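Form P-L/3: holo structure prediction, ligand nickel (II) ion.
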Amino acid sequence: MTVCDIVKMGNPVLTHVADPVADPKAPEIRDLVEDMRDSLAAVGGVGLAAPQIGVPLRVILFEVPGDRLTQEDGEESVGIQETVLINPELSFPTNEIVNGWEGCLSVPGWRGLVPRYSELFYSGYDLQGNKIECQATGFHARVVQHEYDHLIGRLYPTRMTDLGNLVYESEWKNFIEDQQSRKTESQENDNGH
Ligand code: NI
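OUTPUT (holo model):
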């Protein structure tokens, strides 16, 4: 078991385009994924990309427990089982964009409201070299876009359209409550006039 340090925003490996994996079945890729799994488990989180442990290869890993996915999407869900995606490719069947809150292990302590496509198709390879093809919506689609961005040198703050929605995790609940009360207030004013 190897728990690696997670590199933080500002580290050059997070700003470069990662290299494709030549052979998904290679033992060193299996070892890399084990390190990613151990490192993710040690800190807790729903996804990790190889550059986040300093390895500039196109490998991502994600897993979302049912209760988390249910909470994020607002509908009962069994969750997403652990998915290893090597050399992933994305395509978008819709132009619909939705805002949602994200955090990142490479940007610890912060949360931001990030616009993402509401739906996507993704493909890639697993550790046995089998092709994976999947359609995703909601939080599943968001996680895949976030992790894929790590392979093209992007962190979520660079996707944000309003940095007024970048907040400390410790203030996030206050922030949301205040936004909701302002919204309610303005609706009441709209109704009153
Ligand atoms: Ni991240």
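COMMENT: The beta strands are 47-49, 59-65, 79-91, 97-102, 110-117, 119-125, 131-137, 166-168.
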